[in-house]
Design brief:
Rossmann fold, two-stranded parallel sheet, 9 helices
Length: about 270
């Protein structure tokens, strides 16, 4: 199986791509000029915003794992251009040059409305206001309408393996006015690989799937685990299900997290 991975040097891709290669898969990494590929991975110099450059990247692949995304920037135009236009170009290249390839796209559980009355579920209506989840939802819709064989994996809060994401939470929580009692669905990098491996078999074809572990954890507890502090509060929590997602579909499709809770990750030195 030959797989094209976009975003291979990003927070998720830098940890997933070596796992795919170590499993014996023939991996191509779509990289900008000058960026090295991990050992055992073929570098393909291309740009998602340059449609012509994507042709040799997709030719002959049996699967595409689309991880590339922009989110840590105040430049909303760049977010939309990268996440929506870049995905549109990649889909068009696949339609023309690799129509039989399975297209697996990483998305986010942040697409769910803050006032959801229960854990976010894949068939819920969603109208995110922030550029990152809104652009990802728009890209999801492009893929669903593409005629390709597709799967969309909506990841919870990603953490582990020294990625710095959780460690940044104590700083980000006040900025976004996060309530310390808010519980958040999480996913460890190891189980992003678990989910992608399953999706590559076709088990998730035609599905949007929430991917998270078994223990949504409060922002307050996460801040402490990250080595930071957070001001406690007993004020009422306005949206108790915000950032908490339903993962029953993933389990029906065969997904079982190997890092079941963040406490397991701490105990096993997986942070």
């Amino acid at each position: 199986m030959t797989i094209l991975v976009t975003g291979g040097t990003g927070l998720v891709g830098a940890r997933l791509l070596p796992r795919l290669a170590a499993a014996g898969l023939d991996c191509r990494a779509l990289l900008r000029a000058g960026k090295p590929a991990p050992s055992g991975v073929t570098a393909i110099e291309a740009d998602l915003l340059d449609p012509a450059s994507l042709v040799p990247a997709v030719e002959g692949v049996s699967a595409i794992v689309h991880l590339a995304a922009v989110f840590r920037t105040p430049d909303t135009d760049l977010i939309w251009k990268s996440n929506l236009d870049g995905t549109r170009n990649l889909i068009a290249a696949a339609q023309k040059h690799a129509p039989g390839a399975r297209f697996i796209m990483a998305s986010t559980t942040n697409v769910y409305n803050a006032d959801t009355p229960r854990p976010g579920r894949e068939d819920d209506a969603a109208n995110p206001k922030q550029a990152y989840p809104a652009s990802k939802l728009a890209a999801e819709n492009l893929l669903r309408d593409s005629g390709l064989t597709w799967a969309i994996l909506r990841f919870g809060f990603v953490y582990g393996e020294g990625d710095g994401h959780l460690e940044d939470l104590p700083r980000q929580a006040p900025r976004f006015n996060m309530h310390p009692a808010q519980r958040m669905s999480l996913v460890h990098h190891r189980d992003i690989a678990t989910a992608v491996d399953l999706a590559l078999t076709g088990a998730m074809d035609g599905h949007i799937v929430n991917i998270a572990d078994e223990a949504p954890t409060s922002i307050y507890e996460l801040a402490m685990i990250a080595g930071g502090t957070m001001e406690p509060s007993s004020a009422p929590l306005a949206n108790p299900w915000h950032l908490h997602v339903d993962t029953s579909l993933a389990r029906r499709l065969g997904f079982r997290p190997t890092v079941r809770t963040i406490h397991q990750a701490v105990e096993e030195g997986l942070m």
